[in-house]
Every structure is written in structure tokens, then in C-alpha cells.
Automatic annotation (TrEMBL), chain A:
Entry superkingdom: Bacteria
A molecular function (GO) term: peptide transmembrane transporter activity
Residue ranges occupied by any Solute-binding protein family domain in the UniProt entry: 104-500
Organism of provenance: Rhizobium gallicum bv. gallicum R602sp
Assigned protein family: Belongs to the bacterial solute-binding protein 5 family.
Location within or outside the cell: Periplasm
Gene3D superfamilies reported in the protein's UniProt record: Dipeptide-binding Protein, Domain 3 (3.10.105.10), Periplasmic binding protein-like II (3.40.190.10)
Pfam families reported for this sequence: SBP_bac_5
GO biological process: peptide transport
Keywords of this entry: Plasmid, Signal
Name of this protein: Dipeptide/oligopeptide ABC transporter substrate-binding protein
Signal sequence, start to end: 1-28
UniProtKB/TrEMBL annotation, chain B:
Gene3D superfamilies, A to Z: MetI-like
PANTHER family reported in the protein's UniProt record: INNER MEMBRANE ABC TRANSPORTER (PTHR30465), OLIGOPEPTIDE ABC TRANSPORTER, PERMEASE PROTEIN (PTHR30465:SF43)
Membrane topology: Multi-pass membrane protein
Chief subcellular location: membrane
InterPro entries, sorted: BPD_transp_1_N, MetI-like, MetI-like_sf
GO biological process, one term: transmembrane transport
Name this polypeptide is given: Dipeptide/oligopeptide ABC transporter permease protein
Keyword set, alphabetical order: Cell membrane, Membrane, Plasmid, Transmembrane, Transmembrane helix, Transport
Gene Ontology CC annotation, any one: plasma membrane
Pfam hit, one: BPD_transp_1
Organism: Rhizobium gallicum bv. gallicum R602sp
Residues passing through the membrane, by range: 9-29, 104-125, 137-161, 195-214, 248-275, 295-321
Record carries keyword Transmembrane helix: yes
Family the UniProt entry places it in: Belongs to the binding-protein-dependent transport system permease family.
């Protein structure tokens, strides 16, 4: 732990003491401190004393830089109605969570966890004395309630989420003690903990406060439920219940018991401001025994326009945020206005492998295109024809570097050859490969002809909402024309692209590539093998992996089948080492197949943080799978006066 | 007059029915459904949705049923129970989402309308009476300028200025401290402080058009013999002007009343988005993108009803204003 020089002496002494004592103290010896706000409530007899509100052994968080002081508001902004910013900033509490560096899964609300050898049993030990924000105790019974009456209730959950199912059966939670439960799966489910650390995991604890939810559950309140449904204006009791437990409805339910650092005070509705206030029962303390969070309040302005969020930022109305203001086109404005807005920058490192991937559908319904796209020489030729350095200068302001669709440097899955093969810009080489692919005849305009004697022409769909990707594709269209290939960029509305993908109607798409960081590759492997219809380099094979009986599915190649088996192996492994080993094997096939043409690495993005806000890291992984900024412990952020 | 009213009201019934069907068809036209749009939206941010959850949602929302069943579910709910259905995207009853926004939309629209009239009316009269004077040219110049500047750009510029020089918070209709507060004089004043930007932005374009219309109509009237005759009888210039020529020239003001509402709602979408106004425009747009069909359908339906009512009101006003229409 680094100690900052101008730390209040008292806190510094306490911190040193804590270091001496060690983080895991015996409990009774140390008195906890609390925020002045809560102290006043305790003195007024409106709240039990802090020692009664905290577990005997609360989770001790070591602040990144220094022990903080209480007070202040963290202001952020979000966009539109269904965005998950609120989940990431004030809802990142689970049984287990990501560590800040995003290299492992660590306990959060659970004190500890164990996994058996075949990844079918996960045992969680809870902290005795953990309480919901309304003061009710949190125990094994809450998790049993969730499992039996929410997950296994056919009305509330008509089909259980895939991450909670294995061997065709949803997870079964068993009570081993008041503070000990085991999650049993019928078959191995190796990615269970990782999935819990993502946005999905929030659903468990949101549906756990039995003492609160029973009132809205038909099985527990058969008489009174009809009146409650009517009062809430819900369609039926299932909807009423779902609005209490699922996103985004649960963020409109002020008074809902949570285990988060802040609890809702003003709901998430329309264009307005969401307000969350300190949870007096929050079960975490810093190394000096101060109950967290340091900040009194969090406000989230719900905006309709991302430009307005950027204006807010440069106006100094946002304290710590990267989403919505980190776009390439906003960067100059954000960087220039640091003085005026009173903020400094942190690096939000995209977890993506690529700023723009180009996929060519090898399972195309058109026989000719299918044959052309399936030839690896064709793809290598096109890759060599792209002037990535020029793209980098023109599109990414020189902030990027040429890169294939591969894991990032520094990750465990990194493979140098995979990341750097076929990057060289060389028109002659490109032409040689395209000739090798059998496209030797050209028409009067110099375009190459396919095996059917017609010009090889295809469209690449790109999001209308990503002008930067469209610009890059326009340039690539020019590069490929030089080597005699006719590609048409086709800016398309999102839903239409997806409707085409679901029925295997796509030529190919230009998209941002996932899988740059290890966990992202494990959890979202769609760019590495045909995992679903979104694996647009072989849509029909992806459909086959999800459901072999799909009318648009086709039997995959031998290599792709091998990859599918390897991914199943990943899902069935119990340790991260085994999972990464299987994933490496899978990626070796990806490398040799060269399914996707990558262009450039996504440049680092910048987020802003108020000049006097402390305990915010300088580099944070940025992706929804990581739940930025949740894992970097916003409950330890504070303002230095 | 009574017969005219009843006839008009009766016409509205089949009209509404046709509108509701067309609305529903239009919303179903884009490929895919709400869940396709949801998956696509998540994927564009590199998020995924659990396939099990997706299947559950499809069943719960009844998206696997035939179109006619879905339409009947929606329309019968409205007719029999006044229930506009549920918004998928918000997981809330549509009516809850719409009413608060509709009220603010009406407030903004009405204030804008009053602003437009208050500016266009006197300037239009002045421009006509003092044709080709310096004042006429200046007024016309600014009017055209207002027409020419894209409104969203004006909105961004005004937003920047108000933040930079007056320290107002960015966007919306309320400051953060009043955003979730109950109505009070303080909140009303806060609303007024924010209101001027959207009012000016939305009003500028319409003002120019109305100034020109007023000017042209009044010029037509002023050259008619009855004006000379009134002047010869010694009527004061003001009285003479307001008694007949202006009244006749008012006709276009009144007849556009019916279109003002839909125009402000649809034409103001971009401005409302830029300014983050809590009005129906942005809600409709996001509902269309998300293919949230009950929400989008209900908004379009309500807008159509408002347009019909607006047209009716303007027809009645015209009849009251102009005997030629009443007895024609």
C-alpha cells in the first residue's frame, strides 16, 4: 500500500497499525468507524451502532493509494433507457467478482469459495453478520429462496439462463449451514464463476432478499397478490415480480434491499437523475476499519444524447467515467478541456482484439462466393492488400497499430504469430496470393473474375452508428480495388444486420472484435471459432454449434468441429490453467485457419476523473464483460480536500 | 354548425381504425423483432445475452404468436381497458411512460406556439404596413436566418453558451436539484430557465414562415378598396388595421394550429435528443430503434389522435373567425 504524504495523520497511523496487525484481524479488538452522516443517525437512535451493523469479520479492502475521508458525491451520466451503466457503477456486488487487474475471480460477498475437481460443485461460505440495506440478515436461506422459487419457478423463469444450466438441468442450491451453500450442477460448468463476475451475476443477489420478495410472490402471498399487481399497473404477478428482480426494472424499485455500497433513492426512469445514497449496512471496511463507501452519494444523469454527456464532462459535471465520452471523435475535446473541467485522464483499455474485423462468410448461400471466401489464399491476399499504417494515421490518429484478430499482448493467450501474420502491406504479394486462389482472369475494368466467369463482388455490412468503421471500410474498398476485388461497404441498421445473420444471408460484416483479454476470449469466443450466428465468418456452422437442427445450420468443417470440442473442454475444466490450455489449442487452429481479417488494434481510450479524486487506477480494462468501473472498487473512491 | 361538428366526429372513428392498422404494419415492417434489436444493440457494445433468457423473453412477450393475434391483443386492450400494453424495453406499462412526457411535450409545444405567434404576429404586421422599409428588411433577414440555421446546430450552440456563460446545467428541462423534486414555484422557475433554449430553437423556423405568410396576406388585404373607404371615413389607422385586414390575414395562423402539434413532436425529435428533453420525440425514436412495438405504436396512435383533434379545433376556430367558411 502506498501512503500519500498529505494524508491526515490519524488515518495514516491507523493505516500503519492495520498493516502491522495485518488485514485479517480477529474482529473484536478493532472498533469500526463510520461516516458522520450515519453517526448522527446512531446518536439519534435511528440506527444501530456500526459494530452491530457490520459482520464480525467484514471484508477488508485495501485502498489503491490511501485511506480516504468521508463525504462527497460521485456524478456520472448514462445514455437512454436500457443502458447498464448503473449496474456497473453502483450494482457491482456478487458472491464473487473480478479482481481490478482482471486476471482472476475473487470472493466478494462470499467469504470464500471452493470448486470440486470436475467443476460440478461450487461451495460458498458467506460472512456471518452480513445484512441487507434494510438491516435484515443475509444468509443461505436467501440463496435457497432464489433457487427454488425464482430460478426453478416455471412462470418466472420459463427457460433458465444457459450459464446456470449444465447437462440440461438448472443449478441446485443446497444448504450446508446458515452461512454455507453448495451450488450443484448436473454436468461440469467450468465458466460458472466467471459468468457470475459479469453482468449476469447480479441477477442472483437481486432475487435473493426473501423477506422482501415473498410479498410479491404468488406462492407466498396468494390472497394479497392481485391487489399488489393492480396497484403497480403490471400485467400479471409474474411481471410484477420480474420488475423487482431483473434489469432494468429493479432500478426503479426504491427501497429494494441490496448488498451494494449505495442504495437507490431516486429511481431510473426516463430522462432524469438516478440518485443512490450510502447503504448503512454495507459489509466492507478499509484497512483502518472505516466502513465503506467513502462517498455519500452517487448521481447518474440519464441523457438522450451522447454529445450532451461530453458537454457535461468538459463542463466539470462528471466526476469519474469513461463510457460515452471515450469515443475517438470526442477524444480531442476531452483532452483539451482538462483544466476547465477540473479532471485528469485515466486510460480505459479496450478489451477488444481489433478496432475493425472483416469477416467473409464461408458458409455463404451463394456457391461461388462460398468457394472464393473459403480459400485461405484469398483471405491472405486481401490481408496483404490493406495499408494498415495509412489506416492508422487517417482513421485512428496514429494511436493504433496493425494487428490481426488475436488476443492482446500481455495476455496469457497471446500468440505472436497469430497477432502479426499477413500484416505486411504488399500489393504484389497480395496479387500473387489472389492468383494462387485461382482468380487469375480479369474483366475490362481490372476486376478479378470468379470460377463462374463473373466479377467477384460482395458487400460488407457495417453499423450505421459507427462512422469511423465506415470510413475505414471505404479506404479498404480502395485498397482491394487495386488488387482487383470489388467490395461494397454497406452501412446497415443494427437489427437488419442481425436479421440477416440469423438466416445466414450475410456476405460478411465489419465489426469491432472481442477477445483481446483472456476472460473475454473464454466467455465470448465468437471471433475465434463458429460459436453462434454472430460468428459471421461461418454463420451456418455457428448456428450448428448452438442447435444442429436449425434450418439454416450446416455441418462444420473438421477443424471447426475440433474447435467446438475444445471449447466444450474449456467449459468442463475446473481450473483456469486447464481452461487456458484448452483455449490455446483452440486458438492455434484459429491461427492456422485465418478465418477473419484484422486491421488495427483498438487505440487506448481515455476516461476522466476529478483532479482530487483518489484511489482510481491509471489504467482500467474497458468492456462490459469487465463491468467497468465496478471491479476497481468505487466504494473506495474519495475526494481529497 | 352542430351538424358539421357531429359529421366531423363521426369521420374520426374509421380514420382512427385505419391509422391503428397502418401504425402496426409500419412497426412490423423492419426485419426481426424486439429481441433481434436487443441482441444487436448488446452486440454492438460487445455484450451478449444468454440464449436461455432470450427464449424466456420471446415466450413472455408473445413474440412467437401471429401478427393478427399481437395486433388484437394491443387494440383490444386499448379499447376495452384503456391499457396500451407493456413496453418491452422499459418493462413498464406504456401509459406510465407516455403521460408524463406527453404533458411536457404539450407544455413545450404550447409555449413555443405562443412565442412564435407573439414574435411573428407584430413583426408580420409591421413588415406589411412598412413594406420595403429598413425594419422590414432587418426583420425578414433575421427571420430567414432563423429558417436557414439547422435547429440541432442552434441547440448545440445555445447549450454551449448557456453552460459557458450562465453556468446552467447541460440539457434537460430541470437542474439536477429539481429533477426529482415535486412541483413548486422554485421548480417552475427552474423550468422556465431551461425552457427558453428549446422554445427559441423550435420557434425560429416557424417564426420566419409565419412572418412571411402574415406579411403577404396583409399586403393583399391592405390594397383592397374597403381599406381606402374606411380611411376616407376617418378611422384611426390602428383600429382600421386590426378590425378587418388583420382578421382576414389571421386565417393561416389558425389553420396551421392543427399541424403545430405533430410538427412540434416530429420536427422536434432531433432537437429534443440534442437537448435531452423529456418529451415524446426521443422516446418514440428509441422505441422504433428497439422495435418496442407497443410503445412506438401507442405514441404514433396518440399523436394521430392529437392531430385529428387539432385539425378539428382549427376548423372550428376558422369557422368562428371567418363567416365565409361558416356559411360557405
Amino acid at each position: 500500500m502506498k501512503l500519500v504524504r498529505d494524508l491526515p495523520r490519524q488515518a495514516a497511523c491507523a493505516a500503519v497499525l492495520a498493516l502491522v496487525v495485518g488485514a485479517g484481524w480477529a474482529g473484536a479488538a478493532v472498533a469500526f468507524q463510520e461516516s458522520p452522516q450515519l453517526k448522527a443517525l446512531v446518536d439519534a437512535k435511528k440506527l444501530p451502532p456500526v459494530d452491530k451493523r457490520l459482520p464480525a469479520k467484514p471484508l477488508v479492502l485495501a485502498p489503491l493509494q490511501s485511506v480516504g475521508s468521508y463525504g462527497g458525491t460521485w456524478r456520472t451520466a448514462t445514455f437512454g433507457g436500457g443502458d447498464s451503466e448503473i449496474e456497473r457503477s453502483i450494482g457491482y456486488t456478487r458472491l464473487v467478482r473480478w479482481n481490478p487487474e482482471w486476471t482472476e475471480v475473487i470472493p466478494d460477498i462470499a467469504e470464500s469459495f471452493e470448486v470440486n475437481a470436475d467443476a460440478t460443485e461450487y461451495t460458498f461460505t458467506l460472512r456471518e453478520g452480513t445484512r441487507w440495506s434494510d438491516g435484515e440478515p443475509f444468509s443461505a436461506d436467501d440463496l435457497i429462496f432464489w433457487d427454488e422459487h425464482v430460478l426453478r419457478n416455471k412462470e418466472i423463469t420459463p427457460s433458465p439462463p444457459a450459464w446456470l444450466t449444465a447437462g440440461g438441468e438448472p443449478v441446485k442450491v443446497e444448504k450446508l449451514g446458515d452461512y454455507k451453500v453448495v451450488f450443484r450442477f448436473k454436468a461440469p460448468n467450468g465458466l460458472f464463476l466467471m459468468n457470475m463476475a459479469t453482468i449476469r451475476g447480479a441477477d442472483i443477489l437481486a432475487a435473493s432478499p426473501a423477506h422482501y420478495l415473498k410479498k410479491f410472490h404468488k406462492d407466498f402471498n396468494p390472497e394479497g397478490i392481485a391487489a399488489l399487481v393492480k396497484q403497480a399497473g403490471a400485467a400479471d404477478w409474474v411481471q410484477l415480480f420480474n420488475n423487482k428482480i431483473s434489469f432494468p426494472g429493479r432500478w426503479r424499485d426504491v427501497g429494494r434491499p441490496v448488498l451494494d455500497a449505495w442504495m437507490l433513492a431516486a429511481p431510473y426512469v426516463g430522462t432524469s437523475q438516478v440518485v443512490a445514497e450510502r447503504n448503512p449496512y454495507y459489509a466492507k471496511v478499509d484497512t483502518a476499519g472505516n466502513q465503506l463507501p467513502y462517498l455519500d452519494k452517487v448521481t447518474i444523469d440519464v441523457m438522450e444524447d451522447t454529445q450532451a454527456i461530453i458537454l457535461k464532462a468538459i463542463n466539470g459535471e462528471i466526476d469519474m467515467q469513461n463510457r460515452f465520452i471515450e469515443t475517438t471523435d470526442a477524444r480531442p475535446v476531452i483532452v483539451q478541456n482538462q483544466e476547465k473541467g477540473g479532471y485528469r485522464l485515466f486510460i480505459a483499455r479496450p478489451a477488444w482484439s481489433n478496432a475493425l474485423l472483416i469477416t467473409l462468410n464461408q458458409t455463404h448461400k451463394n456457391k461461388v462466393l462460398r468457394k472464393v471466401f473459403s480459400d485461405k489464399n484469398f483471405r491472405i491476399g486481401l490481408s496483404h492488400a490493406i495499408n494498415r499504417e495509412e489506416l492508422n494515421q487517417l482513421i485512428y490518429a496514429g494511436q493504433s497499430k496493425p494487428y490481426q484478430a488475436a488476443p492482446r499482448e500481455g495476455s496469457a493467450l497471446y500468440d505472436e504469430q497469430m497477432a502479426t501474420q499477413y500484416l505486411k502491406y504488399d500489393v504484389n504479394l497480395a496479387n500473387r496470393y489472389l492468383d494462387k486462389a485461382g482468380l487469375t482472369t480479369r474483366d475490362a475494368e481490372g476486376y478479378r473474375l470468379g470460377p463462374d466467369g463473373r466479377r467477384v463482388t460482395f458487400a460488407i455490412d457495417v453499423l450505421t452508428g459507427s462512422p469511423i468503421q465506415s470510413d475505414a471500410l471505404e479506404l479498404i474498398q480502395r485498397y482491394w480495388r487495386t488488387v482487383g476485388i470489388d467490395m461494397q461497404p454497406r452501412p446497415t441498421e443494427r437489427s437488419l444486420i442481425f436479421a440477416r445473420l440469423q438466416t445466414n444471408e450475410n456476405d460478411g460484416i465489419g465489426w469491432v472484435g472481442g477477445g483481446g483479454y483472456d476472460f473475454l476470449g473464454l466467455l465470448d469466443p465468437k471471433w475465434y471459432f463458429p460459436h453462434e450466428y454472430e460468428s459471421s465468418f461461418a454463420t451456418a456452422w455457428g448456428l450448428y454449434y448452438q442447435n444442429p437442427n436449425d434450418p439454416n445450420a450446416e455441418e462444420p468443417s473438421e477443424e471447426a468441429k475440433k474447435q467446438m470440442d475444445l471449447y466444450r473442454k474449456v467449459q468442463q475444466s475446473a481450473t483456469l490453467e486447464q481452461q487456458l490450455a484448452a483455449m490455446k489449442e483452440l486458438l492455434a487452429i484459429t491461427r492456422d485457419q485465418f478465418y477473419i481479417i484484422g486491421t488495427n488494434l483498438e487505440p487506448d481510450r481515455v476516461g476522466i476523473v476529478k483532479k482530487n479524486m483518489r484511489n482510481v487506477p491509471d489504467v482500467i480494462p474497458s468492456t462490459s464483460f469487465y463491468m467497468i468501473p465496478g471491479p476497481v472498487k468505487p466504494e473506495t473512491f474519495y475526494y481529497e480536500n | 354548425m352542430a351538424g358539421f361538428m357531429i359529421r366531423r366526429l363521426l369521420y374520426m372513428i374509421p380514420m382512427m381504425f385505419v391509422i391503428s392498422i397502418v401504425t402496426f404494419i409500419i412497426i412490423q415492417l423492419p426485419p426481426g423483432d424486439f429481441l433481434t434489436a436487443l441482441t444487436a444493440r448488446l452486440a454492438s457494445q460487445n455484450e451478449t445475452i444468454d440464449p436461455g433468457v432470450l427464449a424466456g423473453l420471446r415466450e413472455r412477450y408473445g413474440l412467437d404468436q401471429p401478427l393478427i393475434v399481437q395486433y388484437w391483443k394491443w387494440i383490444s386492450g386499448i379499447l376495452l381497458r384503456g391499457d396500451f400494453g407493456q413496453s418491452f424495453d422499459w418493462n413498464k406499462p406504456v401509459s406510465e411512460l407516455i403521460w408524463s412526457r406527453l404533458n411536457l411535450t404539450m407544455v413545450v409545444s404550447l409555449i413555443t406556439l405562443i412565442f412564435v405567434w407573439a414574435v411573428a404576429f407584430p413583426i408580420g404586421i409591421y413588415s406589411a404596413v412598412r413594406q420595403y422599409s429598413v425594419g422590414d428588411y432587418v426583420a425578414t433577414f433575421f427571420g430567414f436566418l432563423g429558417l436557414a440555421i439547422p435547429s440541432f446546430l442552434l441547440a448545440l450552440v445555445l447549450m454551449y453558451f448557456s453552460a459557458h456563460y450562465f453556468g446552467l446545467s447541460i440539457g434537460g428541462l430541470f437542474s439536477p436539484e429539481y429533477m426529482n423534486a415535486a412541483w413548486s414555484w422554485g421548480k417552475l422557475w427552474d423550468l422556465m430557465k431551461h425552457m427558453w433554449i428549446p422554445v427559441i430553437v423550435l420557434g425560429t423556423g416557424a417564426t420566419a414562415a409565419l412572418i412571411r405568410i402574415m406579411r403577404a396576406n396583409l399586403l393583399d388585404e391592405l390594397n383592397k378598396p374597403y381599406v381606402d373607404m374606411a380611411r376616407a371615413r376617418g378611422l384611426s389607422e390602428t383600429r382600421l388595421l386590426l378590425k378587418y385586414p388583420v382578421r382576414v390575414a389571421l386565417n393561416p395562423f389558425v389553420s396551421t394550429l392543427g399541424w403545430v402539434l405533430p410538427h412540434l413532436v416530429s420536427g422536434a425529435v432531433v432537437v429534443s435528443i440534442v437537448l435531452s428533453l423529456p418529451t415524446t420525440g426521443p422516446l418514440l425514436l428509441s422505441a422504433l430503434f428497439a422495435q418496442d412495438m407497443y410503445l412506438a405504436g401507442s405514441i404514433i396512435l396518440l399523436m394521430s389522435i392529437l392531430t385529428l383533434i387539432g385539425t378539428l379545433i382549427s376548423d372550428l376556430l376558422l369557422a368562428w373567425l371567418d363567416p365565409r367558411i361558416r356559411n360557405g
